[in-house]
Amino acid sequence: MGEKEEHDYYFGNLPKTASEVELRTFLKEYGDITRFEYRLAKCTYCPTKIAYIVFSKALESDAMEELNKKTFQQKRLFVCSTKSEKFFTPLLSVVVRYLNEHISEEDLYKHFSTIGPVECVQKPAHNYAYVSFRDNSSIRRAFEMKQSVKGIEPYIVAVRRKISMFLEPRKPMAYASLKEKCKKLDLVYNPAAENEATMLVTNIPRDTEEDDVLEFLGKFGKIVDWEMQKSSTCVMSNVGYVTYQHPKMARTAYLCCPLNFQGFGMDVYNRLVLYTSKDSDQTVIIRRTSVCEYSGTVGRLIGLFNELLSLADLTNDEIYEQCAEYGRVEYIQRMDAVNYNTIVRLDTEKAAMKVTYIKHIAGEEVVIRFYTAKMYVAPTLASRATNKSVPPKRSRKESMLLHISDIEERRNLTMLPTTDNGSYFNVNPLFYRNEVQVWNYAPRQGLVEFREFFKKYGNVINLREMKENDTSTTGVVYLSFETKLEARRVCKLNHSFMCSRRLLILMADQCIMHDPKLCVKVSNLTEEITDEDVHDRFGMIGDVRYVFRPKTDQAVVCMAKEKWQARALKVMCVGRFYVVVSSLLPAGDQQQPAWSTHSMPQVSGPSDWGTYMGPVPTSANGPMGSMPPMGLGPDSWRSLGPPVPPSVPFEMQAGMIPPGGPSMPMPMPGPMDPGLMGGGSQISPRMRSLMQAVEAQMIKSKNFTTLSMGDQFNLVRDVINQCLSYPTFLSMPGDEKIRYLISGTSDFRQINIFTLFTYPEQLKMLSTIESYYRSTCPPGSLPAPAPSEPSQTPGANSLVVLTQDSKDGPATASATRGSVALANNSNDPKASPNPMELDDDDIPPAPSPPPISFRSRSTSPVPDGAANGTARKRPSNNPSSAMAGKVKLAKKRDNEPWAEKPYVFVGNLPKDISQHFVLALFRKYGNILHISEPQSRVPDSTTYVLKFETMHQANMALELNLTMLQGKLLRVELCKRPHKSRPGRAIMVVCTGIYSEVEIFDTFKSCGKISFIRTIEKPEGEVCLIDFEDKESATAALKITYLHNGNRCKATPHEFASPRKPEYIED
């Protein structure tokens, strides 16, 4: 037996497909094999397997060195005797994260060999690997490496404790049973612990991805529930509660503890197994493993994390490494959140005695005593530190903690603020189990569609849908999953898009907490206004956390900051539709909720409605009470009343109309009663005549006639006040007047109403008011009108396109009804009509607020002086000529020097982009052998051609296609590879106003991933061709009628020469 142990060897990094016969044949020349055993052959977590092989004679040192340099089936072997086990140590090893299955150990070996000699490369999983060097100087250079590996930029971190190079030891589990482990480690055995399926996992670094930890723990068995939170004993770590499907799986994970993962060791505890109360000479206590005083940066950390005043900053790995210098560490228990005491058990009494002499661990002062139960439970006061200097390791932890805090805060913005819903009722817990609720989903989505969308995170086993009524398009879907873990992971998919809808997902037994300081209520919505329209409108103000729409006509919008919530209250329209925005709290009362309390109806079946809005959290100024359940009955939303009118922002002058105007509706269009109005304000004859003149001019404008009489009066009154308070306003051109009113710098308080009108209507109204005002004032008392102002105001039913910026002088081109005036044919009486026919009702409203410049920001090419767009050859309608052209094009590509070669075309780059920037941008995908700069066919842009080492690298570089760079859409394609546009996935888009390819791309990308976009010049104007990756996205895009900038658009299916064959489009 001893001889076998002496000649037993570990063979690592073996391919999964290698058979025993193949490996025996490979090792035949090194001696006779007496015993052979494969390990990890069926493990799906580890990409390779290992073997324990016993030779009849010991291998020579030269043979061992030769084997470690050889490759077996394209895998570099790692051979080591089981008697001299090797380790990855913090001084000589690093961990490489964020890898994938395409990066092998040999790729990492070649990558890191450029900075120093590599001893071993081991990849325990697809997403990370260990790299061990022969000297410590290579570690520093490894952290400074910025080069990518097969297009992936790895994340390199330090190894935090000594980890064996054996993926699996000869004896897989250190203890055969739970009873044996308790006996050897002086733990109190509890028979009930054999059936415990939930384990506590500690010492998880906070910069570790949660999905990676779950994947690692999943190799012991199926996980049904998981919850991770911050540790109360160490600020640098997290803890997790993992529940397995069977107790045997949890017991296996407990017996294999500690679990080495990504350079650190995770400790697993069973809540029913505690440490003994007997005194032990092999066990020590590290008293109060926390730092008593912090200042400076850590003082900010206390405010950031709201953690304990005593922050434990020593990790289990640091304690393990320090104690392991004197002997083998068998057990670490660190669960005391009161006294912060840590239990450490060593293999011998001599080692424990030496550990008691330790005074510092990781630069922190510690007190170590032999273990007694009385000392462990006795309270310990933290002594005031005498040394005021901050250890270097603590300073690095502080900076790392600030970085981790920023990442966690950004991640929390995507999570919904939730609380327990005590009114949740499950009609059948056995049939509808582990439910999540999904809001804002598209209509007619069934079990098949949801199962396909969530298949990566779990299996949807059941579905139930609740709506206000059978015809309602808004409701909530409850999805059931097999395990609670799957349900929790699905809840992290908030704001993901499904059929162009931004989903809101939370657990079924929870509800959303609406913060009244961040949220506003939006009413008067219609079915034509989608959730994404509401999100985009409020996104113009600032970041939107979520849009919750439990009813068709009402929604709650949560902004990311309080300053944006105040601006959101001023919104009065979404698109062209008028809406009412109000606070969740009543005006003038910040302590009471906006709705009265009423009982929550229970859900008794799919026909009942049991979802509610959720409570309002307690205010910092005092308790606000709880928000009542928000059902979808007729009284579920209470009217908050109109907002308080803003105060007058400027000093009143003689002749100004006081704010508020008439408190009663004014008759229209007849003359007003000269008597007093209901509010006590008297309308002067001049103001009454002005209102009649404006009503006569705007009578055909539905945007004006649909306003209330009070809003009409307030709008005209505020414009007159601008003429009185700022006389220079009268000498401005029409464009400058509009910009001045909506800029926010003036005292104009009717911005939301004024932006409901189209641009011609705004000009017409201002021209009418100014003309009447000048006619009633003495000659010479007012400034001269703008000299460049046009004498004739466009009609209310005309669409106007600005062809140059206002700073260069106004330039407009009007078109008759149903047509769009282009910059290059506005004077042509025979201009072709636009394919979109617009009537009076379809005139899009002006954006709120419109951009400072009306000039398009499109990056499309402009050949031969044409407006934004690139000329494209239309495909031939003759099938035979089209087929002949394709054959000719294919032969031409075969004869070209770059056919099937890794040449990448990069176009539409900004003019000032240099070669160094392009190389830095694309170097992460592979080695660039050559770069050239051909002449660009697009004005004000730069073009480059890159040659990569392999076609795989060139294909990976294509992921930068259609990405934004300094306001331009990059074109990244393989050279001389025409795009293959497929039927059912391509659409043609035309729009009114100034053409902008960027605005079209920003609008239609919400429908799905766009694989190709080009501008085609046609006689009637520019048309944008968009090709989606799937047919569902193209179908959803056909329903879009407005761009994000407010311009009208129309999407139609692209007509192919052959309905069943793809179409090739040359760039």
TrEMBL record:
<feature type="domain" description="RRM">
    <location>
        <begin position="197"/>
        <end position="279"/>
    </location>
</feature>
<feature type="region of interest" description="Disordered">
    <location>
        <begin position="776"/>
        <end position="893"/>
    </location>
</feature>
<keyword id="KW-0694">RNA-binding</keyword>
<keyword id="KW-0677">Repeat</keyword>
<feature type="domain" description="RRM">
    <location>
        <begin position="434"/>
        <end position="510"/>
    </location>
</feature>
<dbReference type="InterPro" id="IPR000504">
    <property type="entry name" value="RRM_dom"/>
</dbReference>
<dbReference type="InterPro" id="IPR035979">
    <property type="entry name" value="RBD_domain_sf"/>
</dbReference>
<protein>
    <recommendedName>
        <fullName>RRM domain-containing protein</fullName>
    </recommendedName>
</protein>
<dbReference type="GO" id="GO:0003723">
    <property type="term" value="F:RNA binding"/>
</dbReference>
<feature type="domain" description="RRM">
    <location>
        <begin position="7"/>
        <end position="84"/>
    </location>
</feature>
<dbReference type="InterPro" id="IPR012677">
    <property type="entry name" value="Nucleotide-bd_a/b_plait_sf"/>
</dbReference>
<feature type="compositionally biased region" description="Polar residues">
    <location>
        <begin position="813"/>
        <end position="829"/>
    </location>
</feature>
<feature type="domain" description="RRM">
    <location>
        <begin position="92"/>
        <end position="170"/>
    </location>
</feature>
<dbReference type="Pfam" id="PF00076">
    <property type="entry name" value="RRM_1"/>
</dbReference>
<feature type="compositionally biased region" description="Polar residues">
    <location>
        <begin position="789"/>
        <end position="804"/>
    </location>
</feature>
<feature type="domain" description="RRM">
    <location>
        <begin position="902"/>
        <end position="977"/>
    </location>
</feature>
